[in-house]
Specification:
CATH topology of the largest domain: Hypothetical protein af1432
Bound molecules: fe (ii) ion
Helix content: 55-70%
Distance between the termini: 29 Å
Number of helices: 20
Mean pLDDT: 88
Number of strands: 0
Shape: globular
Strand content: under 5%
Number of domains: 3
CATH class of the largest domain: Mainly Alpha
Structural class: mainly alpha
CATH architecture of the largest domain: Orthogonal Bundle
């Protein structure tokens, strides 16, 4: 994107449009060094996108075949889940992985056995274990080797995260949510969360990868279950120049983060994943748990670098408490950005949606 660095070569009209787009995008964000760096990168990306794909920035007509939302506020997330909701069903292999992880008598061999039964999972785990996310010196060529090198818990979370991605599928009827964008958002958030956890020396960094991948499951369920509601949420957020999160509170009385936490809890997933999803918009409420803070920051960064869901034009801000909770500053992240971008590209290829 060299040409964007030299302002002389820019088309003035597109440049102005990109500037005002980025200004709005970051209008609720703070003015830290990290935000300024993200803003600069964002301008280059948006400018290029406006040149190459101007249609993406045109207002889209409201899809005609979508029934309007009934407008009745549910009494809470559980009430919402009782209505006609599209809840992804957990694949058998995921249940088996959970069983192995929850059984104190399980061994590394048991986990490797479960993974081995699913060829797609084997391929994904081996490619992940050999990727830049990990820096093993030897090649990882079997599931048992992967479990031995990664460790029982870490290999288990990685397997869970990989299978969990398959939950997010394109629904048969027209979707408001672009599933490819959702995948990329989830994976990029997972990679950034894991890298943040590594910089902050939090240990067990794989769990943050999974936490990042699953954090927006509540949003997926809202958008796939009730398209009329989804449209109304997007329109309200646009009208009030606020994030989708604010619109959810207004129409539903709760937000997708809380809903996601309830779903993940009902699935008996580890507590850290419940906290990561439930607290990713309010990390200050989960002070004793770094998972929400890590995913909160990762979510902001991944949307700022272009892995957004295409449903909101305002990024919001990083809660300062999130940095305090994880004990690092944004500056420590800036220098790692190019490296992390290449890991994200690599993981996209590995976990490519089919
Ligand atoms: Fe979210």
């Amino acid at each position: 994107m060299k040409e964007v660095d030299g302002t002389k070569t820019l088309n003035p009209e597109i440049k102005d449009a990109a500037i005002s787009y980025v200004k709005k995008l970051f209008s609720k964000s703070d003015n830290t060094e990290l935000t300024r760096a993200l803003k600069k990168e964002s301008f280059k990306r948006i400018y290029m996108k406006m040149v190459l794909d101007p249609d993406e920035f045109q207002p889209k007509p409201r899809p005609a075949d979508i029934e309007p939302w009934h407008g009745k506020k549910p009494s809470g997330p559980r009430d919402f889940l009782k209505s006609k909701v599209i809840l992804p069903s957990l694949p058998q292999v995921l249940l088996q992985i959970q069983q192995v992880l929850n059984n104190p008598d399980s061994s590394a061999d048991d986990l490797a056995d479960v993974i081995s039964k699913d060829p797609k999972l084997v391929a994904a785990i081996l490619r992940l274990a050999n990727s830049a996310l990990f820096s093993f010196r030897t090649e990882v060529d079997t599931p048992s080797r992967a479990v031995a090198l990664l460790g029982f818990k870490q290999a288990g979370s990685l397997a869970m995260g990989t299978v969990s991605l398959s939950l997010f599928k394109r629904s048969k009827s027209s979707s408001i949510l672009q599933v490819e964008k959702f995948w990329k958002h989830s994976i990029a958030c997972g990679v950034i969360a894991q890298e943040l956890a590594k910089i902050a020396n939090l240990g067990d960094s794989e769990r943050y990868f999974v936490g990042g991948m699953l954090h927006d499951i509540g949003l997926y369920v809202i958008f796939e279950s009730n398209k009329g509601l989804a449209l109304e949420l997007m329109e309200l957020a646009k009208e009030h120049d606020e994030s989708l999160y604010g619109a959810e509170h207004e129409l539903l009385g709760f937000n997708h983060a809380i809903l996601g936490g309830v779903i993940i809890k009902d699935w008996n997933f580890p507590h850290s994943l419940v906290v990561a999803a439930a607290g990713h918009h309010n990390p200050e409420k989960a002070k004793n748990d770094p998972d929400a803070g890590v995913v909160h920051i990762a979510d902001f960064i991944c949307r700022a670098i272009g892995y957004d869901l295409g449903i909101s034009h305002i990024l919001g801000h990083i809660e300062p408490a999130a940095w305090d909770i994880i004990g690092i500053s944004g500056d420590e992240f800036i220098e790692k950005m190019p490296e992390i971008q290449s890991i994200i590209d690599n993981i996209f290829e590995i976990l490519n949606p089919q």
